[in-house]
Amino acid sequence: MYSIKNYLDITVVLIAKDFKIKYKNTLFGYVWAVGYPLVFAVILYIAFKHIIRIKVDNYGLFLIVGIFPWQWFANAIYLSSITLISNASIIKKIMFPKSLLPLSTVLIEMVHFAISWIVIIVFLFINDHHLFYFSWIYGIPLITAIQLVLIFGIGLAVSSLNIFFRDTERIVSIMITMLFYLTPVIFPLNMVPEAFKPYFLLNPMTGIVELWRALFIEGFVLWRWLGISAVYATLSLLGGSVLYQRLKGRFAEVL
Question: pTM for this structure?
Answer without folding.
Answer: 0.89
